[in-house]
């Protein structure tokens, strides 16, 4: 279940003024369904959005969440499934791992912080970090206190100035994956999870042909924010593009003026019109979009590169044509799957190469 679906459910529950619980995986060992930094939401009825396991732990976690929502006191729950002889609740989970999860109340009284700030980062364009106090033997009330920041501002802090400064310092050396840190504050020994926040990926689809429909739909299912552009009004009016967050009808030459290209994680050029695709690629050459996919056979790609001349150099390392992994795709749906799988693979590789978040 994607972060996009989590944010959509949060908006609905927040609109209904429900008290919620935020469950954050803070530590894992062995084989587990989710990893540190993963979050799900639980409401007062025990409904939840997201999964920390394959669905076998969430019911029990919801019971713990009810107490957290009722008292406002954060709680840490540990599930140790590493003993193969112990079949949890008789279900035989078989995950062979340990999950440590922090539950904290989200209330209308404090505007659902820190998740409101987290959601703003996920829906924005800057990477961010969440610093979450996990436990304190000296002051249990500190558990669940958080801060959220981006490179340009402090989005939220529920900590006093001294602790805000200490966690901000830890965030300055944060890695691309969530990690636990122990540190001292005066005579207090504290533990904090520093977790990166990456904005929802944005996909730009250039060309609203019939084969773009499954691409837009599947990208939305995966949690991508999709924008669609075409110079042909009738194409954009087709049924099936309801999952697109934004549609633009404009000449290809106006693409860079009409859309903030720097906000997109990936773009697919698929107008099926040679001259239009050439103009799109000219616009994209001056952008920093890390993945540019081009539909069509290699010979078509080579012709376009020759037509672009010097501008083609700026596409080196970013242009993937024919777009998609070689999975034997032969239908619009399977081609969409191959393209999005390639984007996922390229994005994951780029994320692993980052040394720091901010």
Write structural notes for this entry.
This protein is an alpha/beta fold and 358 residues long. It has helices at residues 3-15, 58-71, 115-122, 161-171, 212-221, 233-236, 255-258, 274-285, 298-308, 332-353; strands spanning 20-30, 39-43, 48-49, 75-80, 97-106, 128-136, 146-149, 154-157, 179-185, 188-197, 202-206, 225-230, 246-249, 266-269, 291-294, 319-320. The protein is elongated, with a radius of gyration of 23 Å. The mean pLDDT is 92.
What CATH architecture of the largest domain do you see?
3-Layer(aba) Sandwich
Rg from Cα: 23 Å
SS field, number of helical segments: 10
Regions with pLDDT < 50 over 5+ consecutive residues? none
Percent strand equals 25-35%
* Count of discrete structural domains: 3
Order of helices and strands: HEEEHEEHEEEHEEEHEHEHEHEHEH
Q: Give the CATH class of the largest domain.
A: Alpha Beta
The secondary-structure class comes to alpha/beta
Query: What strand line-up does the widest sheet have?
Result: 13-12-11-14-15-16
CATH homology group of the largest domain: NAD(P)-binding Rossmann-like Domain
Total strands? 16
Q: Can you tell me the overall shape?
A: elongated
Percentage of residues in helical conformation: 25-40%
CATH topology of the largest domain: Rossmann fold
- Indicate the mean pLDDT: 92
End-to-end distance, in Å? Answer: 26 Å
Largest sheet: 6 strands, parallel
């Amino acid at each position: 279940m994607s972060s996009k679906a989590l944010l959509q459910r949060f908006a609905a529950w927040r609109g209904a003024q429900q008290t919620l619980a935020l469950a954050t995986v803070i530590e894992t060992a062995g084989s587990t369904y989710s990893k540190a930094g993963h979050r799900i939401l639980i409401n007062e009825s025990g409904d939840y959005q997201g999964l920390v396991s394959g669905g076998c732990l969430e019911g029990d976690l919801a019971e713990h969440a009810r107490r957290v929502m009722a008292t406002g006191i954060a709680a840490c729950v540990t599930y140790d499934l590493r003993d193969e002889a112990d079949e949890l609740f008789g279900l035989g989970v078989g995950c062979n791992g340990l999950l440590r999860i922090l539950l904290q109340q989200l209330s209308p009284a404090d505007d659902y912080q820190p998740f409101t700030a987290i959601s703003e980062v996920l829906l924005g364009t800057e990477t961010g970090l969440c610093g979450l106090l996990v436990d304190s033997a000296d002051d249990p009330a500190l558990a669940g206190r958080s801060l959220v920041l981006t490179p340009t501002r402090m989005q939220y802090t529920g900590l006093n100035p001294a602790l805000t400064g200490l966690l901000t310092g830890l965030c300055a050396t944060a890695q691309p994956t969530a990690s636990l840190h122990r540190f001292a504050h005066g005579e207090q020994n504290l533990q904090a999870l520093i977790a990166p926040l990456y904005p929802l990926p944005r996909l730009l689809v250039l060309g609203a042909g019939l084969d773009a429909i499954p691409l837009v739909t599947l990208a939305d299912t995966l949690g991508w924010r999709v924008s669609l552009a075409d110079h042909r009004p009738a194409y954009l009016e087709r049924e099936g593009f309801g999952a697109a967050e934004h549609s633009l009808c404009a000449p290809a030459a106006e693409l860079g003026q009409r859309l903030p290209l720097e906000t997109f994680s990936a773009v697919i050029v698929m107008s099926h019109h040679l001259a239009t695709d050439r103009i799109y690629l000219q616009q994209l050459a001056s952008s920093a979009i890390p993945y540019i996919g081009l539909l069509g056979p290699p010979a078509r790609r080579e012709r376009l590169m020759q037509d672009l001349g010097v501008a083609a150099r700026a596409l080196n390392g970013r242009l993937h044509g024919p777009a998609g992994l070689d999975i034997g795709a032969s239908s619009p749906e399977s081609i969409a799957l191959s393209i999005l799988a390639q984007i996922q693979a390229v994005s994951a590789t780029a994320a692993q190469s980052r040394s720091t978040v901010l």
